[in-house]
Amino acid sequence: METCQICCGRVSQCQEIQIMRGRYETFRLCPLCVSRLVTCEDCKRLVCLGYAYVVNRADTSGKIYVCTECRRNYVECPRCGKLITPESLVRMSGSYRVCPACAHNTKPCMACRELLSIEDFKAGDLYCVRCRRNGNSYYRGICSADFRPIPVFYGEEPYYGIELEVDEKPDGDEEWNIDECVENLNSLIVSSKGRFFLKDDGSLHNGFEIVSQPHSMVEWENQTWLAAVCKQIIYDGGVSFRNSKCGFHIHRSRKDLSEIVIVKLLTLFIKLQPFFEKVAQRKSNGYCKFSFLGTNENNRLTGKLLYDRLKKQDRAIMDRYMALNITGPATIECRIFRGSLVYKTVLAYLKFFHLLCAFAKKKEITLRIILKSSPVELWGELCKHFEQDSHLIDYLIEKRALLEDCVK
């Protein structure tokens, strides 16, 4: 009579021998032992049920088991605790990464920043019922300068976020009803479902800055709220370009930007300062300094010098008020632009920085080529690169910033 290879015939059910295949061999087991064992989905070894882990894989239905060693290939959903493959995690917003099941049944509250069940929200609302009841909403006026909401990402990487500063007219010839303007903008925040918010800015006299959530360039081209915001501020008596204190800053995600690309961007900002200032309609100042090396003498500019200063976190480069601010761990910030409430100008600013980063990422545009080329040659190559976007070219023509105009 055949006996079970595990219990060795001690169980009466050994007359009903079953075959169970492992990774390297086939086992002949009784039904009781079979019920106590599972096969690891990854390594195919037999594992005692008490020492196996259950995995939820999006591409497979039912329960899947893995052994202790293969467990290392999986991560826990921070909300429900179930195991899942890392690539199956769904990014909700900010640092939240959850399994598909939790992603379907939860959403983040924009006030308390908690990931909560959909049942905790009213239909279409961005705030949970508790925060609505307690009045925790950044729709209520201007937030403090240190306010950090949950980032909500729109589209695919790379992402761009903006800071547009607005203030009253310096001559005071028209009344700037800031309270009424904020109330009107709050309505636009609601209708845009929280794609932007208002923040205090200490550098402004009687104004605030408009801060957006991260958008892809495709999202920026298709959204409608920014044009409405610019129009509303103009209607309420606010300005941006006409007040020299106001600027326009663009934050870009840096996940796809290597160290060499960052150095190439720094070099472009240094060598092409006059051309960049013409595009940005703003000169170098205390809030957007081009003096990355403490000097404007380009003959001292070398790749090794930039690399060394970057690695040593030299203050000449690691300053948040530089024209290209690279101090952020997740983003770089372009600070050169003068504020504007003309929508097509703001969109041209975004496209300029977007295509500039794409130019620096080109493998054929090496750091050696950038360093050896004259500023005129470099700007000529950039203008050719900009031709892929008609909106940006129209803006450069209007500002007489193309190569032939600059050379004249």
What does this 3D model show about the protein?
The chain has 408 residues and is α+β, with helices and mostly antiparallel strands. Helix content is 32%, strand content 16%. It starts with 17 loop residues before the first strand and ends with a helix.
Q: Quick one: overall form?
A: globular
Kindly state the mean pLDDT as a whole number? 80
| CATH architectural type of the largest domain | 2-Layer Sandwich
Q: Radius of gyration, rounded?
A: 29 Å
For the record, the count of structural domains works out to 2
Low-confidence stretches: 11-15
Topology:
Elements: E1 18-21, E2 26-29, H1 31-36, E3 37-39, E4 46-48, E5 53-55, E6 64-66, E7 75-76, E8 83-84, E9 90-91, E10 97-98, H2 100-105, E11 106-108, E12 115-117, H3 129-134, E13 160-166, H4 178-191, E14 196-199, E15 208-212, H5 217-222, H6 225-235, E16 247-253, H7 259-271, H8 273-280, H9 303-311, E17 324-325, E18 331-338, H10 343-361, H11 367-372, H12 375-386, H13 390-398, H14 403-407
Antiparallel strand pairs: 1-2, 3-4, 5-6, 7-8, 9-10, 11-12, 13-15, 13-16, 14-15, 16-18, 17-18
Helix pairs in contact: 4-6, 7-9, 7-10
Keywords:
single chain, 408 residues, alpha+beta, Creatine Kinase, Chain A, domain 2, 2 domains, six-stranded antiparallel β-sheet, two-stranded antiparallel sheet, 18 strands, 32% helix, globular
Short description:
The chain has 408 residues and is α+β, with helices and mostly antiparallel strands.
